[in-house]
Amino acid sequence: WIVADEIDTDRPRDIDARWHFHPDVAAVAQGLDVVSADKGVANIRITPVGLADATVRIARGESEPMLGWYSPKYNVKLPTSVALYSARLRRSALFAWIITVDPSQRPSPVEAERLRAPEGVA
Question: What is 49-94 written as a DSSP string?
Answer without folding.
Answer: ES-TT-EEEEEESBTTTTBSEE-SSTT--EE-EEEEEEEEESS-EE
